[in-house]
Design goal:
alpha+beta; Aminopeptidase; 2 domains; four-stranded antiparallel sheet
Length: 385
């Protein structure tokens, strides 16, 4: 077992599903870094037993590269695993199974395995480590780290988000905003349905409006071919309402998301949605003033669009032996926050494929970890004389 696989085995053993604390894992990482002479700081959540970690290896100066990843994982509940999800297991074909192997503890293990060489190297520019929490529920935890970094005396020049891209360099992904809508109607016996205000019916009209918006985007754009699909998508994923068939429902809720291309402002789409909500609200309240429709933003993060002609992109493409400039990802990362809030040139490059992420028997291939290990060694050499 390589040192990377040994570390990955330890990381997988921590159940850091987003509903759990990540403190045990962070204490392990802090102890490991300390053994190699690296000081790290924890940026705690103000209310939950969770934390981000930030460390600098090499000179404490401006510039350098930040290696960033999240420590939380999605749940295994309801999935049929044939392997133990929180123990690293391997098969004869080199697949390494366990929750988070691909998304994204594999990258964290590669980074940690390279720490002894980072510490021993005569780095001319620093390598920063930024490990976050609660990425899977909307890039929540990293925002506390970003607030701390605003006042940090030395800002990284570039950031590599180690989400799984099969070690190809990705420079763009869509933004996302997720909302919950709660419809309050007026119940009555279904035999007198016109006397009530059917919350399910009004929620259905909202879903229908969102579906027409999705069709509009697909047919008329705007379009950006660097994304797949190359247009903004609108998707309703959850709807709940009603208690019995013979009762006009007094409540219904739905959840939807917008994943926007860089050339489209999701707030403009939400303003159109809000205008339609206002029309329905007025219609409902004309029958009963206690009726209402409320919307709540559940989570959001900006998209990422780093120009291909930047020095960092060229450097990391060369070091990662990334040959495909057209690789696209259909998921979001924390990269847009680092890019938009801290103005750090950011890209995505990490081992494994999201084809295996979030699924039962999630795995990363050992060859992908080896590619990442070799990339990090080339990066260390590049930043040393």
């Amino acid at each position: 077992m390589s040192s990377t696989q040994a570390i990955l085995s330890k990381l997988i053993a921590f159940d850091t599903t987003s509903c759990n604390s990540n403190m045990a894992l962070m204490k392990y990482v802090q102890g490991y870094l300390s053994e190699h002479g690296v000081t790290s700081d924890l940026v705690h959540d103000p209310e939950l037993p969770k934390a981000n970690l930030f460390a600098t290896i090499g000179p404490h100066t401006d510039g350098g590269i930040m290696l960033s990843g999240h420590t939380d994982t999605v749940p295994v509940t309801g999935q049929h695993w044939t392997k133990e999800p929180f123990a690293l297991t391997a098969d004869a074909d080199g697949r390494l199974y366990g929750r988070g192997t691909t998304d994204m503890k594999g990258f964290l293990a590669c980074v940690l395995a390279a720490v002894p060489d980072m510490a021993a190297a005569d780095l001319q520019t620093p390598i920063h480590l930024a490990f976050s929490y609660d990425e899977e529920i909307g890039c929540v935890g990293v925002r506390h780290l970003i607030e701390r970094m605003k006042t940090h005396p030395h800002k990284p020049a570039g950031c590599i988000i180690g989400e799984p891209t099969s070690m190809e360099v990705v420079t763009a992904h869509k933004g996302k905003i997720a909302l919950e809508v709660t419809v309050k109607g007026k119940e009555c016996h279904s035999g007198m349905a016109p006397a009530g205000v059917n919350a399910v019916n009004y929620a259905a009209r909202l879903v229908n409006w969102l579906e027409h918006l999705a069709i509009e985007k697909e047919r008329h754009g705007p379009f950006q071919e660097c994304f797949s699909p190359p247009f903004t998508t609108v998707h309703t994923g959850v709807i709940n309402g009603g208690t019995a068939l013979n009762i006009v429902p007094n409540s219904c809720s739905l959840r939807f998301e917008i994943r926007n291309i860089a050339d489209e402002d999701p707030q403009q789409l939400l303003r159109r949605f809000d205008n339609y909500v206002a029309q329905l609200r007025d219609e409902m309240q004309a029958k009963d003033p206690n009726c209402d429709i409320q919307t709540r933003v559940m989570s959001s993060y900006p998209g990422l669009q780093t120009p291909e002609n930047t020095d960092l992109v060229s450097l990391i493409r060369r070091l990662a032996h990334s040959t495909d400039a057209h690789v696209k990802i259909n998921f979001g990362t924390e990269g847009g926050l680092f890019s938009n809030v801290l103005n750090i040139t950011t890209l995505v490059c990490g081992p494994g494929s999201m084809e295996q992420g979030h699924k039962p028997d999630e795995f990363v291939h050992a060859s992908q970890l080896q590619q990442c290990d070799e990339f990090l060694q080339r990066l260390i050499k590049e930043l040393s004389p």
